[in-house]
Amino acid sequence: MSHVVDDAPLSSFHKRLALFSSGGPFLDGYILSIIGVAMVQITPQFNLSASTQGMVGAAALAGIFFGAFLGGWLTDKFGRHLLFTVDLIALVVCSVLQAFVNDAVWLIILRLMIGFAVGADYPIATSLLAEFTPSRWRGPLLGAFVTMWFVGAAVAYVVGQFLLGLDGGWRWMLASAAVPGLIIVLLRIGTPESPRWLVKKGRYEEANEVLAKVYGPHVTLADLPEESGSNVSVGELIRSGYGKRMAFITIFWTCSIVPLFAVYAFGPAILGALNLGGELANIGSAAITIMFLVGCLIAVALVNRMGRRPLIIHSFLWGGLALLALGIFPTADSWVILALFAAYAVLIGGTQIMQWVYPNELFPTEVRGSAVGLASSLSRIGAAVGTYLVPLALSTLGIGTTMIIAGVITLLGLVVSVAWAPETRGKTLGEAARLDGVPAKAARPFRNHALS
C-alpha cells in the first residue's frame, strides 16, 4: 500500500490552504464578538429589552445552525471547491447591509443570514483541509484552524473600541466584517477540488490532475489509499454505529462553546457585572481573547504529543474549575477576576481545537462534510439558547450563579469525554473513521481508472 499522500511533507500548498480555510473561523470570531461592543450603542438607540438583546446576539448562532447543516450536505453533494468561495460572498453583502438597518428586526434578519454563510463555510473548509493534509499534520492544522476564531475576536474588540467613540459607530463596526471577508474571497480563488471527493464521484481524471498538481507528476490515484470506513448516508449516521460518535461530538462541542459564545456575545456586559466596566471591560475582553488564542496554540503543540483524548479531558476539567471559581468569588478583586478569566481562556484551548479535529477524523469521506455540518448545527442550538439567556440570567440570577452554570456545563463536557472520547492520534483518515468492532482491513489503493 502506498503512503505517498498520507506521509507527504508539509508543502507550501498545505500552508496556503490552511490559511485560506481559516478565513471562516476568523470571520465567525469577528462577527460574534463585534456585536458585543456594538450593543453598547445599539441598545439605547433602538431601546432594546433584555429579550431583544438576546435575540440580536443569538441570531448569528441560529444562522450557523442552518448554514452548517445545509453547507455540509451541499459540500458532500456538489464538492468543496465551488462552495468554498460562494458562501463568503453572501457574508460580505449582508455585512454591508447591516450599516443601513433602522430597527432590530432587520438587524436580526441580516445577522441570521450572516450566520448562515459562516456556518456553511465550516464543513466546506475543514473537509477540504482534512482531505489534503498528511496524517502527521492533520491534527495540528485542523487545530490551528480554530485559533483564527480568537484572532478574529481580538481584532473585533480592537476595531470596536476604536469605532465606539463615533456617532453611529455601531454601523461601521458591523459593516467592517466585509473587509476581511472580501480579502478571503479573493485569496480562495483557484483552490482545487478534493481528490478524495472526486474519486467518490467517479471523476478519476480530475482527481489525477489535482494529485499531480499538488504532490507532483509522479503521484496518481494508485497512491491515494481507499478509506475503509463504512459508507453510510446522512440519515444512517444516527441509526448506525456512527450515531454514538455524532452524539459525542455534538455534546462535547455544545459544552465547549455555550460558555464561550455567551462570553463573546456579551463580554463587556459580563465583565461590567464583575465590576470591570467602561473601557476596561472592552480592553479586558481583548486581553482575554488573546489568552484564548494562546491556549489554542498550546493545545495545537500538544495535540500530537499528548494525544486527542487526554487533551480534551484535561481541558474540560481545568477550564470548568476556573469558571466555577469565577461564580463562587464574583466580588473578588478585579485583577483576580481577570486572572481567572485568563486561566479559563488558556485551559479551555484543548476543547476548542478538538471541535475541528475529531469531527473530520471520525467520519468517512462520503459524509464527512455532512457530519461536520450536522454536529456544528446541533451544537449551535445550545449555544444560541445560552447566548439568548445570558442577559436574562445576568439580570435575574446574578453574575455569580450565571458563571456557576457555565462551569457546570463545561464539566458536563468532561463527563462525556471521559466516557466516549476516542484516541485517533497517528491514524490515517480511513483508520480513524472505521467504526469500533469493524475488522481492520488493509486499505486498498484506488485503481488508476484514468490510466486504465
From TrEMBL:
Its main location: membrane. CDD domains: MFS_SV2_like (cd17316). Pfam families: Sugar_tr. It is a multi-pass membrane protein. It is found in: Cell membrane. Signal peptide: none annotated. The keyword Membrane applies. InterPro entries: MFS_dom, MFS_sugar_transport-like, MFS_Sugar_Transporters, MFS_trans_sf, Sugar_transporter_CS. Keywords: Membrane, Transmembrane, Transmembrane helix. This is MFS transporter. The keyword Transferase does not apply. The chain crosses the membrane at residues 17-42, 54-75, 82-101, 107-129, 141-164, 170-191, 247-271, 283-304, 311-329, 335-358, 370-391, 397-421. Residues 17-425 form the Major facilitator superfamily (MFS) profile domain. Belongs to the major facilitator superfamily. Sugar transporter (TC 2.A.1.1) family.
